[in-house]
Amino acid sequence: xxxxxxxxLGQMNFMDYLAQPCKVDKPIxxxxxxxxxxxxxxxxxxxxxxxTHHRVVEFxxxxxxxxxxxxxxxxxxxxxxxxxxxxxxxxxxEKYCYILVYSFPCTDISVAGRQAGFEEGSGTRSSLLWExxxxxxxxxxxxxxxxxxxxxxxxxxxxxxxxxxxxxxLNFLEDLGYSTxxxxxxxxxxxxxxxxDRTFALSILGSSSYTFPVPIELTRCMEDxxxxxxxxxxxxxxxxxxKAKDLLIxxxxxxxxx
Length: 258
Known about the structure:
Layout: E1 20-21, E2 28-33, H1 39-47, E3 51-57, H2 61-71, E4 97-102, H3 129-141, E5 148-153, H4 163-176, E6 178-186, E7 197-205, E8 208-209, H5 231-238, H6 242-254
Parallel strand pairs: 1-8, 2-3, 2-4, 4-5
Antiparallel strand pairs: 5-7, 6-7
């Protein structure tokens, strides 16, 4: 089942007046590279979209275990460097819409990380992005490119230090035939009580138009996430040290904790 408003509408530039809005009207087969515990799959689920977990690629065994526990799947650990285009099993595109997500590691991009960048061939963790280039080139050869690509990463991806490499990536997608739309979005503008800026890049195969969701009023605060928990349970989620937790409970009982 698809929500009535599950479609992509125009981003303002001249060519988009000629482009058709993108609308997903086929069952979705989701391919997750750098899958983590499957937040993109959770988003589709929360939207009420019909989809299947088609392929999951994740190197971290703990993340894969979490993914399988959350989504009731049984995917193995997999290294993106060993994935081929053929192994993604993209077939019958007339029957299915393939969405490939590739939120690659931000380790070397984030201002809180190593800041070693993601230049192609540099060997950094963030340069694993270029494995996606290899995979897409293989898919192009077999006429099996996914209809939609989605990337999310830290906003430093287009900082002065990284903009050259990000532009190279966007140019590559354009050469493959994708129309790509990029925007920074903050979680606090979409109902989440967290100041979390991230860059999103949505690529649609062919000439299509798209606009990112309009921000909505924030009606929740962090306290709302713990409304159904006891004070002690909420504290256990926030404070990892048992000694620190016991101290805070003691101070609270004495009335000295504000």
